[in-house]
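Hi everyone,

Forwarding the result from last night's run.
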Amino acid sequence: MSTTRRLLTLALVASGVALTSGRLRAQDAGAAFPIPDSETADPPTQARIQAIEAVAATDGWNAVVVPIRSAALRSYARERYGAADAWFHLYAWAALFSEPENVFTSNWVQAIVAGRANYEGVAGAYHPTDKPLGSYMTPGMQDWVLTNAAFSEEFFSNVKPVDYLPMVFQILEGLHRRNAERFAQYSSLALAIALVNDVAPPPYWPHGQVTPQALPRKLPNPAFVFDRLALEDMNGNTYHRLTRLRAEELKFVVDAAAPLPELDWSLNHVPYPLDRFEGAYLMIKYREDRAQNNQFVWAGEPYTLPAIQNVGGICVDQAYFASEAGKARGVPTLLFTGTGNDARHAWFGYLDENHSWQLDAGRYAELRLVTGSAIDPQTWSVISDHELRFLSDRFRALPTFMQSRVHEEFARDFLDLGDYAGAARAARSAVNYERRNLEAWETLIAADTKLGAPASGVEGVMREAALAFTPRYPDLVASFGNRVVQSLRDRGETSLASYEERGLADRMRGDRDDLAIKQAALILARSIATQGVPDQFATYNGILSQYGRGESTTFFDMIVVGFSEHLALLHMRPQAREAVERARMALDIQPGTPLAADVDKLLSRLQD
């Protein structure tokens, strides 16, 4: 459940609604608008929805929130889970429609700041009123979402706390008003556009190696994007049938940075079919002269797809060209940046003809690249490793996950209302249906903690969660493992905590050296925070010895740069230079490589 929905539910609690043993009890709850038990065995009927809309039209959406939620709880208690899901989504829409805009915006700003997404273009003055969010949708649009179960499932599966719902609703309303029939056919596309276009993109998108003058970084009118892609799809010009893609995939189509005329140009100038689309990357001649002269930022003429093809570029330009050409064809694409053993690189990923993500297009094996970073256009932040894998595995489209989500939604609702035992039971049901339901694991941990379970018991759930994500999602394994380590430290088991912390780093070596490096950086950071300088040196030297040999730019950036700059702040510049030279030997950095140049630059900064 989104933060918006949770906060509204908590507001209902404050006004007198309470939950006991999984059932709603409130004075007069639903008395003015009763929904009989007989209706809760099945999803809400069209007649019931119309009755709800009629009450909302006269008394406001807030008047129907509690009765609908009561019906959802009763449906869930009867184990009519399909019906309960439908009632829950009806409740969730009513809750959103009744949320005052100023309350939502205040919570949204907090989410933006917490997610570090308050970049230029988003940060600014907002002047919301106390009108409800539902005012951004006409009654006709409200009726459409309330009666469309598939869209409701997709909406509530994808919406995040950083989505600015007043604009999301406005975009959906506008696209529906333009062409209701086409909207119904391409509703997932419309949702993806709304979730991407709710706020302006950041200045570091799609990558930082081009000036704002050369690439303005403006998203086109949502209606123009919708019309273009729907028309290209209907004319058979897209490589994927867009009606078969979900919003979580389509958002990587609608986030094109190139203007629409350039996308149309690419249809006639990028000849590669989907089964050979990696070739789009190699269409762009690599500019050795720019790389050798450290000209990593595009200079001169505007940054257009024709210009890139005409004059060539470095790897980031190749990746940009290929990913934009893919979006023009309705192909979800990602632009990656990452580091190798002695260099930095950019490549792209795309959804292939088998609906599998190919994430290594243009990623050269000889660079020994670790996993790269890509931007999620919905949040404008870096996509986590596990989210990329979730996309690739596509398990969230499976019936078992849909069943799991029903239990997870109610588990979160129970947790927010203080029914911790009910939350734990529902969350356990959720992970039993689908072990990869991350939100359900988080709810189960939170519920057990609220129930007063011993720390060792909560650690057991964390270990169980880590096992559920082994081996395909190593970043989650590391995350849950580190939470176990912190819990052990909190209860005084420091030796065991240190042992498990080192074990995590050891297990990540090989296939995921980047995670091993992050784990080593945590060990070093803890040493800096809790130990004297001699012990810090011992920890640093141990990390160099154990993890440094032949390591990458990532190791240098996270371990060597961090420790040497820490020493410089302590006015220990000679020791800092010694630490860097020791790293040069441990990492076996070869002269003339980009990494060797980074070492020399760092040493220069550390001069007295």
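The two ends are 54 Å apart (CA to CA).

Cheers,
N.
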